[in-house]
Design brief:
Serine Threonine Protein Phosphatase 5, Tetratricopeptide repeat, 14 helices
């Protein structure tokens, strides 16, 4: 540990210098531990491994609570291990217990200061302003400098999807380790990719036969379900959701509740924040209860 430029031992005398002052330059993790603490012995090797791997993105400062009881008490340590994260001289986050490596990575990535973050934000702004090609080029340069910047990789995948390159977008998403980012980010992109593929398949699809079948037989629920799928894929989303709801309202037994299943599948594709999802989920629940 003494050989590492990123890991230090702190006590009451040097805590302000090692933690408070350093945290104004780089995030500082403070690990409160003790020799008798078994979970500490599990956490320490994982923390050490990650701190070395991140090569200066964080500093790890260890505090032996048996030798520094007053300091631990002053900082509100109630159980071991406790890890507190300091930025700009203040505690901004913490956790207790021996988290597994995947959870530790999420914790660290949430607070990691990336040197290319300003360029990532510039690329996102360029996309908002309509320069999609320039945005993709710049985001690609971000990833060249920091290949493990997985949030930027997902940003680029989303841009590729907008550009119509569904295959490349999907390949990029599949390369991102799921434990490295918030799960909802990957889930949303995968849903968007699935929806994009459905749109590709339904583009120019002639639905006149299905429409005629429904006009001739208002109880042709199979035609309604098929047309609903196509309408959602085409972006005529509310028409599709309305058809699913109509089947659910008319016959819950058809196709093992195909109307309701279609609504749920569409909700997953559209995402929880879509206003149509909120509207039709409410309508669906009103039928259920």
């Amino acid at each position: 540990m003494a050989d590492s430029p990123y890991i230090f031992e702190a006590n009451t005398q040097n805590f302000a210098q090692l933690v408070i002052q350093n945290s104004r330059q780089v995030p500082v993790l403070v690990d409160f531990w003790a020799d008798w603490c078994q979970p500490c012995k599990t956490l320490t090797p994982i923390l050490t491994k990650l701190i070395e791997e991140y090569r200066g993105a964080f500093i790890l400062v260890k505090v032996n609570t048996d030798q520094n009881q007053a300091l631990a008490s002053q900082l509100g340590v109630r159980s071991l291990p406790t890890v507190k994260l300091f930025k700009d001289g203040k505690i901004v986050d913490e956790f207790m217990g021996a988290l597994p490596e995947a959870e530790l990575r999420k914790f660290l990535n949430k607070h990691r200061i990336r040197p290319t973050e300003p360029y990532r934000q510039q690329a996102l702004m360029m996309q908002e302003e309509g320069d999609l090609e320039g945005a993709m080029n710049l985001m690609g340069q971000v990833l060249q400098h920091e290949p493990d910047f997985h949030e930027a990789a997902l940003d680029l995948a989303a841009m590729l999807l907008v550009a119509g390159d569904t295959n490349q977008a999907e390949a990029m998403v599949n390369q991102v380790p799921e434990a490295s980012v918030a799960p909802e980010l990957i889930q949303k992109l995968r849903a968007d990719i699935k929806l994009a593929r459905l749109k590709e398949q339904s583009e120019g699809q002639d639905t006149s036969e299905l429409e005629q079948r429904i006009a001739q037989n208002p109880k042709d629920y199979a035609a309604m379900i098929e047309l609903a799928k196509i309408r959602v894929a085409q972006g005529r989303t509310e028409e599709g959701l309305e058809l699913y709801l109509k089947v659910m309202k008319a016959d819950r037994s058809f196709g093992e509740d195909a109307g309701r299943q279609g609504l749920i599948a569409s909700f997953d594709l559209l995402g929880a924040n879509d206003p149509l999802v909120k509207k039709y989920r409410s309508k669906m629940f009103s039928l259920l209860y």
